[in-house]
Amino acid sequence: MTESVFVSYAGPDRAWAEWAAWHLRDAGHHVELDVWDWRTGDNFIERMTDAMQRATVVVALFSNHYFHRTRWTHQEWTSVMGDRGRLIPLTIEPLADTDIPDILAAVIRKDLHGLDEPAAIAALLAAVNGPTGPGAPPVFPGGAHAPAPAGTSHAGSPDRRPRMPAVAGQPRVWSVPSRNLHFTGRENLIAEMREELLGSQRAVVQALRGLGGIGKTQVALEYAHRFASQYDIVWWIDAEQTDQIHIQYTELATRLGIASSNGGAERNTRTLLEHLRTQDRWLIILDNADDPGDFETLLPAGPGHVLITSRNPEWRNVVRSHDLDVFPRADSLAYFSARIPGIDPEHADALANDLGDLPLALAQAAGVITSGVPPIRYRRLLADKTAKLMAKGIPPGYPTPLAATVDIAISRLTADHPGAVALLRIAAFLGPDPIPTSWLEAVGDQLSTLTVDTEDVLWPWSALQPLNRYGLARVDHETFQIHRLTQAIVRDHATPADATAAQDDATNLLAAVNPGNPVTPAAWPEWAALTSHLTAHPPITMHRPPLRQAFLKAARYLVHSGQARAARDLTINVHSTWTAISGADHPDTLAVAETLGHAAVDFGKHSEGRRVNEETFEKRRQVLGEDHPDTLNSANNLASTLNSLGEHAEARRMHTDTLARRRRILGEDHPDTLISANNLAHTLNGLGEHTEARRMHTDTLARRRRILGEDHPDTLTSANNLASTLDSLGEHTEARRMHTDTLARRRRVLGEDHPDTLTSANNLASTLDSLGEHAEARRMHTDTLARRRRVLGEDHPETLQSANNLAYTLNSLGEHTEARRMHTDTLERRHRVLGEDHPDTLNSANNVASTLGRLGEYTEARRMHTDTLARRRRVLGENHPDTLTSANNLASTLGSLGEHTEARRMHTDTLERRRRILGEDHPSTLTSASNLAYTLNSLGEHAEAVRLLKETRTRSRQTLGDDHEFTQRVTASLATALTAAGKRHEAQKLLASRKAGQRRTRRKSR
Question: Which residues lie in Low complexity bias regions (predicted)?
C-alpha cells in the first residue's frame, strides 16, 4: 500500500531525514520532506500544518535533538498524537527511557542505529509498510549469513543517493578540527546551504560572510561534521595565508596517493584540482579566505562542494554568499541555557543584550561564568572593563578572543587605511544601531579627525569598505553598523587624545543632523535613528551644549510618536543632568521639564505630571512672564493634566485664560492657539457641556484642516474629539462615520499601535456598542485592550478605559458574570491608580453596581449606586450627565427592590434634568422616559405609562431607527403597558411589528 509520508526530524539529523526520505520514495511512497519540497519564503507553520493533514503516516526520527523543547518537532508529534494519526517512531541513536516523553513511551518504535544499511532499509520499509509474514522459511538462527549487497549506481554517473549516516561513518579522507559540542542555532542557514549544495551536478561554491566573531567558522565546522557521512573526502584549509594553500592542497594530494614527491606544491595543487574534477562526494572548506582574486586558480571544480568563510564582502560578487548576522535572541538564550544550566532567564536575556548576541562574545561569557563568576557580576565587569573582559579566554572552536580579533584587524588597517580607523573611532562613540551614511556625506569634511579627499567621489564608502572587508562593520547602501562590543573595545583602546577628538567629531556629527519637525510622522524614522545615537552614551552626550537642541527635539519626538516610557526615562535623566549643570531656572532645563511633564501624563503618571507641570509653570511665570509662549505652553499642559485628574472646573478656567492669551499674542489660527481651543472643548465635553464643545470642536477641526492638512496628527485629534462629542450628544451614526475615517487615517499615518490610534479604535468600538452592534464592539475592544496592555501597561488609565468598555459590552451581550469580574478588577485598579473620586473611578463604580443589579444583587447595587451618586454630585455637580446616569440607575434599582414611589420621584427628576440639559431626543433622555413609564406601570398608572411609552417609541424610531435594540425594548414595554391597560388587541399588533423588526435585525447580522 502506498502511503503519504511526512518525515519529522530535528535539524541536526537532516542527513538521516534525507536518507529515510530517499529510500521511502524509492519504495514507491509519496514522501514530503521540508528541505526538498518547501520553498524559501513559505510560511513554515502553514506548510507544516498542511503536510500533517495530508500525511497518512508521520515518520519521526527520534534522537536527543528531537525532544529538545525549543524545536518544532514537539508540535509535529503532539499534533499526530492529538489527532490519533499514525506515528512511526524510528530511533537513530541510543535513547534512555527517560529521554522520551511519557505520552510516547508506550508507542512501539524501531531502532535504526546499530544496523548496517541493508538491515536499516529493511527496518524502515517494514515500519512504514506494516507487519507481514515471511516470504520464505526463516533462516536457522544458529547459522551464519552474509548481508545483502548494497545498491549500486548507474554506470558512468555518480551515486548521489543519501548515505545512511551511522553506517557511512567518517569519510575515508578527513581533516577537520574537532566539533563544537556547544554549537547552537543556525538551523535554517545550514538547511539552506545543504539544499543549494545538492542542487547542482557541478562544483558548488558557497561563502559564509560576516563580522569577526559572528560564527562563520563554527557553521562550516558544524556542516562538515553533520554531513560527514555523505562525503568521501572532507578537507579543511586555513586560507588566511594564501601562500600556504598550495602546501595544504599537497597534503591532501598525498593522502589521496596522487602527489608527486618531486613535483613541487603548485604542481601537486594542479594535480589535485584535476583529480577532484573527476570525483564526487568531496567537500573542501577554505576558512578565513580574504581576497577573492587570490583564489581564482585555487577553487576546485567538479561534482563536489566548496565552503568558504570570509569577512570580505567581495565574495558575494563571485559565489553564492550567506551573510551571517548576530544570533536571534532565542538562539542566544538557548545557548546560555545549554552552557550555563540553571541560569535565570531574565539574567540570560539581559546578558545576551549586553553582548549584542554576538556568538563569540556569548561563548567567552559562558566560559567565564561557568568558571564561577555570577552573571550579575559579569555584566558589571562588562560595562566597566569591556576590552579587558573580552580579552579573557579562548572559547573552544575560536582561534582568538574577541578583543584580540578586533585589535588584529585594526592593526592591519592602520597602515593602509588610516581614514577607516579614524571613522571607526568616531562610530565607536555613537550607538550600535545603523548609522546613515548620509550623515557623513553632509558633514564629513567638517570632522577634525577625518581627512576627506574632495576628489574622492566615492567617499564615505571608500573609507567604509576596508572596515567591511576586515569584519569590523556591516555596510549596506545607506547605512553602516559597528557591533556594540567592537565599539567598546575601540573606545577602551583609544589614547585619551584620540578618544577626545573622536568624541568631539561624534558630537559635531550628531548636532548637524536635522530630521525635521519631531511632531511630523514623516520625520520619525530619521528621528528614531538620531535618538538611538544621542542616547547611546548619555554621560558624554548630555554634557555637551551643542547637542541640547537635539535632545529637546528627540524627547518631543518620543512623546508625539507614542513612546511615553522612553520619553519619560530620557527626560528624567536629561532634566537631572542639566539642572546640575545649568540650574533649575535655565531655559533649557525648563524646556526639558515641559516635555517631562507631558511624558509623565502620557505614561499614566498624572500626579507626577501635575507636580512637574506646576513647578515649570511657576518658574516660567517668574522668569519669562505671564504671556511668554513658553509660559503659555506650561499653562496649557497643566490645565490638560488637571482635566486628566478629573479637576474639570479648574482645567476649564486655565484653558479659557490660556486660549484668550494665545489668541491675543499668536493669533486665531496659530497651531498653539488651536491646541488650546481643542483642549478647552475637550474639557467642556467632560463637564457635560456637549453643545458648546461641539461648536468649538467643529470650528477647530475646520481651521486645522485648512492650516495643517487633513492627515496632520493634530487635525486627527480634532476629528476624534468631535466624533466623541457627537457620541455624547447621541448622534451615533455620524460619530461612527467620523471615528471610522479617523481610525483609518491614524492607522496609516501613526501606525496600528500608536496610543492615538488605539484611542480611535476604542472610541469606534464604544460607538458600535451604542448602536447595538455588540459583537463587533466586543471584537474591537478585545483587540484594543490587548494592544494597550502591551503598549501602555496593565494599569495605564487608557488600558483601564478599554477594560471598562469591554466589560460594559459583555454586559450588553448578557455575559454578566464575566462583566462583573472585569468591572470589579478595573474598579480596584482605578481606586489605586486614580483615586476614589476620579470620574473614571466613579464610572467603574457605577458599572459594577449596574452589573450587580443585572445579576439580581439589588441590595449591594443600591448601596454602591447611592455612594456613587453622592460622590458624583459632589465632584461633578447635580446636572452633569454622569451624575444623572447614577440617579437613573439608582432609581431603577429602587424599582427592582419594590420601592416604586421613590423610584418614580427620582426618575421624574432625572427625566426633567436630562430633557433640559441633553434634549428631548438624546438616548439618555429616552432611557429616563422609558424607565419612568415602567415605574408608572408598576404603580398601576397604566394610561400615563402608555402615553409616555408611545411618545418615547416615536422619538426612538426617529433617532435610533426601528431596528435598534432600544426601540425594540420600548416596543415590548409599550405592549406590556397596553395589555395592563386592557388594550390587548393593540398590544398584539405592536408585538407582531416588533417580531418583524427582530427578523430584520437577525438578517442584517448574518
Answer: 141-156
